[in-house]
Protein 1
Amino acid sequence: MIHNLFSRELILWNRTENKRKMPWKGIKDPYKIWLSEIILQQTRVDQGLKYYENFIHSFPSVHDLAAADEKRVFKLWEGLGYYSRCKNLIHTARTISSELNGCFPETYDAILKLRGIGPYTAAAIASFAFDLPYAVIDGNVFRVLARVFGIREPVDTSAGKKTITALAEQLLYKKNPGAYNQAIMDFGATVCKPANPLCTECPFKNNCVAFKEDLIALLPAKVKKTAVRTRYFHFFLPVYRNTLPVRERTEKDIWQHLFEFPMIETAEETGSKAVIAAAVKKGWVLKDSAVTISPVYSQKLSHQLIKAVFISYRLDGKSPCFEGYSWVKTTALKTLPFPKTITRYLAVS
């Protein structure tokens, strides 16, 4: 397909057929664009929408976000996962507020220097907020270009990424890069979908290589399969006068800066008796205590599968064995940011 024909057809589709509505589309406020882009990293639009609205309501400006208590920000983020995004969000908000007087950088290179912002997000902010000619390249763009132009190089390799990136930059409609970038992402999300694409409605069907050569299911090509590590978490919930010990996870691991109950992790699936025996040795559980063991709660992360059980019981006093933990009233647990696994358990317990 001739490159300028693709761009013209896409812009026409965007103007006449694109019905996808999102509250951040068409705005020029770099703060709101940045916020939406960070929230939508590794997150579906329908899931991220309520988070975006809550953040804008709670923190209308970058100064508001910068001044917010970290626990409050993490609580609002609760359930989105990839908590390093939230940590970077807070850091960047404070940088913009204190060092840049609340003004977002207006060049691609300057935006790229902010923590938590990579080439994709920098291009999105530069094109949407400042009309700068930078191609936004996400999974939707990879898929559309690989299919329409028949790119067979795996998109998860350096060569494949380089090919797609070069093509995306050639195709960019420089008179209105923001509209073009939004259009191609919307097109990938609503027409050229990963599964069951709407090929019969596609304006490129007469020229699409994947459609003509029956390669829809094969493109974009990928070669890597990420191994998933399974981890087994056993949380202990000793209740004393309606209080429980909790602590913030500070290690460089999943769920950093979120809260948890005392926990024993095992490398493989282990029977409850053995884990409880280990907790008895720690002094967490008294021998012959009556315990209640929950069903297994599973949570899939990008490269990990968490399988968690919750073991609850009552204590006659606060044990000194829970050093490093704070005893929190059960009614106050809802104010703390917990991982999704713990939140799900608390919702039904």
Protein 2
Amino acid sequence: MIPARTVIIGLGQTGLSCVHYCMRRGVRPVVMDTRTAPPGAEQLPEGLECHFGGLNAGVLLNAELIIASPGVPLATPGLQQAAGAGVEIIGDVELFLRECRAPVIAITGSNGKSTVTTLVGEMAAEAGLAVGVGGNIGTPALELLKEPLNLAVLELSSFQLETTPGLNALAATVLNISEDHLDRYDSLAHYRDTKLGIYHGAGLCVYNREDGETLPPAGSRAVSFGLNEQDYGRVEHQGERWLAVHGEPVLPVRELRIVGAHNQLNALAAMALADEAGISRTAQLAVLRRFGGLAHRCQFIAEKQGVRWINDSKATNVGATLAAIDGIADGLTGRLWLIAGGQGKGQDFGPLVPLLSTRIAGMACLGQDRAQLLELGDNTHEVADMSEAVSWCAQQAQPGDWVLLAPACASLDMYSSYLVRGDHFATLVEAL
């Protein structure tokens, strides 16, 4: 039951889903937002009581239930006063869980959440389950209640976990922990502890044995994933590296479309979660063999004449390009050809120099700051545009080689966004 005096704080896509949820149950909530013109305000039903540009303390103290947006810290004075007065404060995910009758797979971590959530969702669909995928990954959790579900797969941020006391997932994972959101948390330990809240009440805790910060509480039923042979891991088999479950090889790493050791960890985590949900190994492997990754993030595009083409258009600075090259190194057996260039934003491209003499066979340089890139080594090549870059790399590459778009630069000299740049690259590759 939704109480009559319900207040929703924070609009946008999630806030609107909360409003619609309440309205469908005959409750007209009060809506607040600290912004004077919050996104979605024009979509609100007529006649709702709204307070924009700040929080109304009197209304909050009179509420029976407050549904707070993930973007509103619980440390906000108005919320603290309401909590002190005994007002229940939850988030949209908690509201979803109170009605959802399907088992829930819950996924969090500093990196890789969206990839693992997508993988598990696709594995469930491949197995014929009616699956809902949402949370922090586009679809608000409450929207998943519109259709009957066999399984819900939720990506959850630390902000969402703050207001989700009743998770009790079938299986839950913390993929990794690194410094993030320290403008909201007073320490890394505080941020980590919030993430670890996902394990509360979980039937199975899936943790990363490469990252000790992800360990579940003592006494939990748990299984781990990592890059050695334990639990969900890797083994050497038939002269090559395989993903394995409890030492049993199940898939050669070379058959994965997602690239890099970090994505092997993501695949192993997804398998552990899918196993707990009863999803067949056949369905899991079918997805792992075809899933090319999320768009523009070391995304596998195609294999043409034995050459793999990878789109990391999101690599808009040197650090991101170095990370992309490092990430794919584990699966690369041939040579690497790099496409780079655009708006350099005053960066030092020097860190690419050692790679040009060791790991990069050649680099096609385009865009506004290509001259700086051309000076980095003898194996650089000037091109006029992306079409010429793809054509040159296709001429140079041999079977077993990989071509990586990781520009180390912004796109705005040639494209409206890195998304458009990546899509153009993909279109050109598919046409080869």
Protein 3
Amino acid sequence: MTDIPFIPFEAGEKLLDWITLTDALAEGHSLPKAEIGDTFLYRDPDTLLSRAAWIDGMGMAVKSAIIFPGNSAKGKPNINGGVSLYSDTDGTLEAIIDFHLVTKWKTAGDSLMAARRLARPDATHILLVGAGTVAQSLHAAYSAAFPQARFTVWSRTRASAEALVKALPDVAIADDLESAVRQAEIIGSATMATEPVIQGAWLQPGQHLDLIGAYRPDMREVDDEALRRARLFVDSFDTTIGHIGEIKIPLETGAITREDIIADYYDLSAFTRTSDEEITICKNGGGAHLDLMTSRYILAQWRAAG
């Protein structure tokens, strides 16, 4: 019996590349559409979230996130978990991969795939809205595709922005969000906002926005005007429409219509910029199918490295 590998964060990350990851995600979307399902179990205040996906031709993955909010008081991480990856041919377990490794590369890689297609390739100024862990991942991902770009970060709290700049010295801090938005060519927003922080009136011709932060029905990062001014895309119809406030709320109020959402990643040929002046937005909703695609890429890199 072949040993089943466990792929830890640091050893696995050394083998990965943002550009080849997005190529793998694109290839994954050429396969039959994924079947996905989420399961939640609770023991107040703790949560077990299992996200499963099955793609014909790629296999199956179950990503388990175990959330213990009280761990921080004990000096332990609040979120732990892993991804179990199964063979498409016989259903056997092929690998167990660190939860944080898959989540980091899936989340930023998801948005980078849109930016590689929708942002102007000559973009030289990238704004990160929010200074958390995802902002660091976005910085690494965008840097791979736009090596000529300079970065600015805005955060509600100056301390968090300063902490990010300490980790990433090439990033400048913006004190005024409106001014920072107006000057950027690519905007990656990863906040916990429930009310829009980015106003459509601030947007400028030629900009591309990746919206990552909102994941609940009550969460939004941009206002209705921003959505109306842009050509609007999502990574997955199934994980955004009816689920995430960024799309759900304006659809319900009539601010946008279903026809305003041009495509998701199962129609990648539609992810093109039609002019240098147009504004584009892609909403990153995530989903277990992206965890599966990312995990399969990680395992392939692990095997290639011996």
